[in-house]
Structure formats: C-alpha cells, structure tokens
Protein: Cbb3-type cytochrome oxidase assembly protein CcoS
Amino acid sequence: MSVIYGLIPGMILLGLVSVLVFFWAVRNGQYEDMEGPAHRILDDDDMNGSTKQPPEER
Structure:
C-alpha cells in the first residue's frame, strides 16, 4: 500500500512532463510537415533539379 504513495506522484509528474514536451514540439514546428518525408522517399533525385557533376581530375 505504501508503494502507491510513490507511484501516484510519479505518474502525475510523468504525465505533466509528457504534456509539456508535446506542447514544446507543437510550438517549435515538429508537426508541421507530416506527409513530406513519406513522399520525399518516392521522388527521384534527378527530378529535384540538382545536377551534381563529378569533381574534375587534376
């Protein structure tokens, strides 16, 4: 029974920290582009317009 007196404040503290981390992530833009990385993997590198040329030999 005495373990509950330690677990309840611990769970409340863990819940508050989780909520604070969630609001920090939303405020800093971590959830702005959820679809971009999923579609970016399907794009070809050639179609992005970046043409990389091999380095010249000396």
